[in-house]
Design a protein that fits this description.
The structure holds two protein chains of two kinds.
Chain A lengths: L4 E3 L2 E4 L5 E6 L6 E8 L3 E9 L2 E5 L6 E5 L5 E5 L8 E8 L2 H4 L2 E2 L3 E5 L1
Chain B lengths: L3 E2 L4 E5 L4 E7 L6 E7 L6 E7 L4 E4 L2 E6 L4 E6 L8 E8 L7 E3 L3 E6 L1
Classes of the chains: A mainly beta, B mainly beta.
Chain lengths: ~110, ~110
C-alpha cells in the first residue's frame, strides 16, 4: 500500500457522460498530481495541486477539471466523455519530489463505451 | 514531441545476468532523473534517482548512469531476478520546482529463470 488512495478502481460509463475520480494523498503530502496512461501515449501529466491551489498544468483537456479540497483530497472530473478517454488515471503525491519522486496510487481504470 | 525517449519497448534477459535499460532526453536543462518500475494493475513505484551533478548513483542491485554530453541515462540491474520483470519508466522534471514529472513510454523487462 503506497499510502495514496484512489477510488473507484474501475469505472465503466457511456460516451457523453461525466465521472469523478477521487484521490487521497499520503498523510502529510500537500501536492497531488494527476496522470493519464493510455496505451499509445504512456504516462501523461495532467495537472498538479499544492495545498488547494493549482500549481502546474500539463496536457489536460478543457473537458477535464480538478480540484483539491481543504482536507487535501483531490477530485478529477471528466465530462462529455469520449471513447478515447478510456485509460488508467493515476494520482500521485509527494513530499520531496527531487529526492524521492512521486508516490502513485494504484489507479482508476476508466472504460468509456 | 517526446522530451524523454525510451527507444526499446522490450528487453528479455536471463536470471543472474545484467539488464540495461536506456533513456534519452532532449533538454540539457533537465537536472533530475528518476526511474520507476510498474507492475500490472499497480501504480508506478519509485526506484532510483540521479542529479545532473552526478554521473552515477547506486542502490543495491540498481545503478543509474548519466551521460550529460550525450543526454543519455541508463539503468543497470545486476543480477537480474524474475521479480524484476515489469515496465520501467525513466522520468524527469519539466522545471526545477519539482512539478510536472514527465515520463518516457517505458521498457518492458522480462527476466526468465
Amino acid at each position: 500500500d503506497s499510502g495514496v488512495t484512489q477510488t473507484p478502481k474501475h469505472l465503466i460509463t457511456a460516451t457523453g457522460q461525466r465521472v469523478t475520480l477521487r484521490c487521497s494523498p499520503r498523510s502529510g503530502d500537500l501536492s497531488v498530481y494527476w496522470y493519464q496512461q493510455s496505451l499509445d501515449q504512456g504516462l501523461q501529466f495532467l495537472i498538479q495541486y499544492y495545498n488547494g491551489e493549482e500549481r502546474a498544468k500539463g496536457n489536460i483537456l478543457e473537458r477535464f477539471s480538478a480540484q483539491q479540497f481543504p482536507d487535501l483530497h483531490s477530485e478529477l472530473n471528466l465530462s462529455s466523455l469520449e471513447l478515447g478517454d478510456s485509460a488508467l488515471y493515476f494520482c500521485a503525491s509527494s513530499v520531496a519530489p527531487q529526492a524521492y519522486g512521486y508516490t502513485f496510487g494504484s489507479g482508476t481504470r476508466l472504460t468509456v463505451v | 514531441d517526446q522530451q524523454v525517449k525510451q527507444n526499446s519497448p522490450s528487453l528479455s534477459v536471463q536470471e543472474g545476468r545484467i539488464s540495461i535499460l536506456n533513456c534519452d532526453y532532449t533538454n540539457s536543462m533537465f537536472d533530475y532523473f528518476l526511474w520507476y518500475k510498474k507492475y500490472p494493475a499497480e501504480g508506478p513505484t519509485f526506484l532510483i534517482s540521479i542529479s545532473s551533478i552526478k554521473d552515477k548513483n547506486e542502490d543495491g542491485r540498481f545503478t543509474v548512469f548519466l551521460n550529460k554530453s550525450a543526454k543519455h541515462l541508463s539503468l543497470h540491474i545486476v543480477p537480474s531476478q524474475p521479480g524484476d520483470s515489469a515496465v520501467y519508466f525513466c522520468a524527469t522534471f519539466l522545471n526545477q520546482a519539482g512539478t510536472a514529472l514527465i515520463f518516457g513510454k517505458g521498457t518492458t523487462l522480462s527476466v526468465s529463470s
